[in-house]
Automatic annotation (TrEMBL):
Family according to the record: Belongs to the polyphosphate kinase 1 (PPK1) family.
Protein name: Polyphosphate kinase
UniProt-listed Pfam families: PP_kinase, PP_kinase_C, PP_kinase_C_1, PP_kinase_N
Keywords carried by this UniProt record: ATP-binding, Kinase, Magnesium, Metal-binding, Nucleotide-binding, Phosphoprotein, Transferase
Functional description taken from the UniProt entry: Catalyzes the reversible transfer of the terminal phosphate of ATP to form a long-chain polyphosphate (polyP).
Native source organism of the sequence: Microbacterium mangrovi
Modification after translation, per record: An intermediate of this reaction is the autophosphorylated ppk in which a phosphate is covalently linked to a histidine residue through a N-P bond.
Active-site residues annotated for this sequence: H461
GO annotation (BP), single: polyphosphate biosynthetic process
GO molecular function, one term: ATP binding
Length: 719
């Protein structure tokens, strides 16, 4: 157990935290990479996995779908936010000193290039490979008469009844086009009057996007739903001549903006804003490349969209449809099946075949690594056992995102119904999960759970669970601090860490933090946690500056940071100053990075790596050499303004030496030149390193990690 006065000495009293001012050479104005273009570069890395023939074929199709989904959200939030600020005259955050309109133009040019590359990856690489593997996307004209007749019967019985063609004429104004919906723009001629008309037909989103045909010689054949509909339009417009039809898709601004200081009821205000979000202004129009000029001009005029916002694409629009291929039973075309193992401390005892989670935590801190180690037998089991345990008096929990049938939520409900005190802090402002979280909040309230919604003006993003248990006449706090959401579904594909502890100081810290979140307490002193927005930025800056000073004094110094995004200018500048002092700095980032590594005189000792693969790298790790007494934190915060200044975030210090070594070894492996990764160059280009100088493929970090976790379990079994 680390002594309290040691922690106080490391971080200082909170009242002593100051903004770190460091004198030195002036940093150049051009020291940041554009964050939006960096995000597009991240999505390009996803696309490169789809283009990689060494990846399993159906996984490549899945990466194409992920790219499409990612780009949708980028437009709905980031591009929409920039446009909204420009139109309303608000300041546009930019760290590269260029006009907002120029930034938008660069984003548009790069997004056009990537969408065209995305289409080529599908039409020229993945689709032909699928065809060779016996999975074929067919068109209507590829089918014989009997097959077309059978599909027509399916159309009549399953599709036609839910179609809603909408005419556009003086009596029928141009219809509302919902965001991300797939539509047919149809031009028709009235056979009686000769007048040309326009109609819009929405492809029903509740129907399967691809229709599976009867197999021929074992071959899976798939017909896009819009192809089936467009070849049977005569049934929708009897007596009319179909002149032309084209597919199009609209993206709208779907960012939610709530002035929390001006609302009396956050839930009501959020529900109203979610309703308004459906009608956000258009920001992108995707059309098939053969769309005629008449239809194009009509869409541009009615949707009030510019040519710059139009994306003419070949073939299939909305490649999120490829997510559906995951249901195909072809294990030979997917990643090998992996079953998460139970973390060694939580493995069932040989005596009764069950695990006592509380007894395991009492023996010492437990660090779990998902999805290699099971979420179900650790985090979920922890909360389920707490709900049933008669000695547990209270459970406090943050919920940012969770699944629709979450056993975590059910455990909280069971605990409340068993008479325990249960507090759930539900972050209803979690982007795109707002409606689901409102439903869960109300369900929890009905069950007797005390539900709160956090602090005004701040999102509660930290991942915390606190269980208060009565043991031998005293209360003991069992704590979990994680890097990822309490979501059993995403825990299978998101890489995250979680720390279980009964450390008395962590229990006090969490108790104080929950009191601050649910009441009016303003707690300034946290001992083993760094908490945003008050302490986290200053605490990290202090650690970074200590490494700088240690390097100047000739003492051991090193900084390692793993995050999803590295954008915050103050943190980046501190890392530049550390590098100028000779501190080796390793940054492992999944997505956005505005830091320029390897620039002479600025960042020569900084390396930046990115790893993408089967699992989404989601954990955050912060490591400081500290003159040989290493300090390591894990938690929920990225290095972004919103995380450091506008969210409640928490990092917890990892103190158990084997856990510190595990995190350090993982980082060393990730930064190794023998591990496949992307390297960021000084000019902002991400270079993929997947093959060594000898032509052999470099090691896959996630494969190596799984092997290491399984080895630890085997060693325990032998003992």
């Amino acid at each position: 157990m680390i002594e309290q006065d040691v922690l106080d000495a490391e971080l200082g009293d909170d009242d002593d935290f100051e903004t770190i001012e460091v004198e030195g050479t002036e940093l150049p104005d051009s020291r940041y990479l554009d964050r939006e273009l960096s995000w597009l570069a991240f999505n390009q890395r996803v696309l490169e996995l789809a283009e990689d023939p060494s990846q399993p074929l159906l996984e490549r199709a899945n990466f194409l779908a992920i790219f499409a989904s990612n780009l949708d959200e980028f437009f709905m939030v980031r591009v929409a936010g920039l446009k909204r600020r420009i139109l309303t005259g608000l300041a546009v955050p930019t760290n590269i000193g260029r006009a907002p309109q120029d930034v938008l133009a660069d984003i548009s040019a790069e997004a056009h290039r990537l969408q065209e590359r995305h289409v080529r990856a599908w039409t020229e690489l993945v689709r032909p490979a699928l065809d060779e593997a016996g999975i074929t996307f067919v068109g209507w004209d590829d089918l014989d008469g009997d097959e077309q007749a059978e599909l027509y019967r399916y159309f009549q019985s399953q599709v036609f009844p839910v179609l809603m063609p909408l005419a556009v004429d003086p009596a029928h104004p141009f219809p509302y086009i919902s965001g991300l919906s797939l539509n047919l723009a149809i031009r028709i001629r009235n056979a009686r009057t000769g007048r040309q008309e326009f109609a819009r037909l929405k492809v029903p989103p509740m129907l399967p996007r691809v229709v599976e045909l009867p197999r021929v010689d074992g071959r899976i054949r798939l017909l896009p739903l819009e192809d089936l509909i467009s070849n049977n339009l005569a049934d929708l417009f009897p007596g009319m001549e179909i002149l032309d039809h084209h597919t199009f898709r609209l993206t709208r601004n779907e960012d939610v903006v709530i002035e929390e200081d001006e609302t009396e009821n956050l839930i009501q205000a959020l529900e109203a804003e979610l309703s308004r979000r459906r009608f956000g202004p258009p920001i992108r129009l995707e059309v098939t490349e053969d769309m005629d000029d008449v239809t194009m001009a009509l869409l541009l005029d009615e949707l009030e969209i510019t040519e710059q916002e139009v994306y003419r694409l070949q073939g299939l629009l909305d490649l999120r449809a490829l997510f559906d291929l995951g249901r195909i039973d072809r294990p030979d075309l997917k990643y090998p099946a992996r079953v998460p193992v139970t973390a060694v401390p939580f493995q069932p005892s040989e005596q009764n075949g069950t695990a006592d989670i509380f007894a395991a935590i009492r023996k010492g801190d437990v660090l779990v690594h998902h999805p290699y180690e099971s979420f179900a037998t650790s985090v979920q089991a922890f909360l389920e056992q707490a709900a049933k345990d008669p000695q547990v008096l209270a459970i406090k929990q943050t919920l940012y995102r969770t699944s629709g049938d979450s056993p975590i939520v059910q455990a909280l409900i069971d605990a409340a119904q068993a008479g325990k005190q249960v507090l759930a802090l539900v972050e209803v402002k979690a982007r795109f999960d707002e409606a689901a979280n409102i439903l869960w909040a109300r369900k929890l309230e009905k069950a007797g759970v005390h539900v709160v919604y956090g602090l005004v003006g701040l999102k509660t993003h930290c991942k915390l669970a606190l269980v208060v248990r009565q043991e031998e006449g005293m209360l003991r706090s069992y704590c979990h601090i994680g890097t990822g959401n309490y979501n059993p579904k995403t825990s299978r594909i998101y890489e995250d860490f979680g720390l279980f502890t009964i450390d008395e100081q962590v229990g006090k810290d969490l108790t104080r933090l929950f009191n601050e979140l649910s009441g009016y307490a303003i707690e300034k002193k946290f001992k083993r946690l760094l908490v945003a927005p008050l302490h986290l930025r200053r605490g990290l800056l202090r650690h970074i500056d200590r490494e700088r000073r240690n390097a100047l004094a000739g003492k051991p110094a090193r900084i390692r940071i793993k995050v999803n995004s590295m954008v915050d200018e103050q943190i980046i500048d501190a890392l530049y100053r550390a590098s100028q002092a000779g501190v080796p700095v390793d940054v492992w980032v999944r997505g956005i990075c505005s830091l320029k590594p390897g620039v002479p005189g600025l960042s020569e000792s900084i390396r930046v790596r990115s790893i993408l693969g089967r699992y989404l790298e989601h954990s955050r790790i912060f490591s400081f050499a500290n003159d040989g007494d290493e300090i390591v934190y894990i938690g929920s915060a990225d290095m972004m303004h919103r995380n450091l200044d506008r969210r409640v975030e928490a990092l917890v210090r990892v103190i158990h030496p084997p856990h510190v070594k595990e995190l350090d070894d993982l980082f060393t492996l990730a930064m190794s030149d023998e591990t496949a990764s992307w390297h960021l160059t000084a000019d902002g280009v991400w270079e993929r390193h997947a093959v060594g100088a000898d032509g052999a493929r470099l090691a896959d970090l996630q494969d190596l990690t799984m092997a290491a976790v399984q080895k630890r379990r085997r060693v325990r079994a032998v003992r």
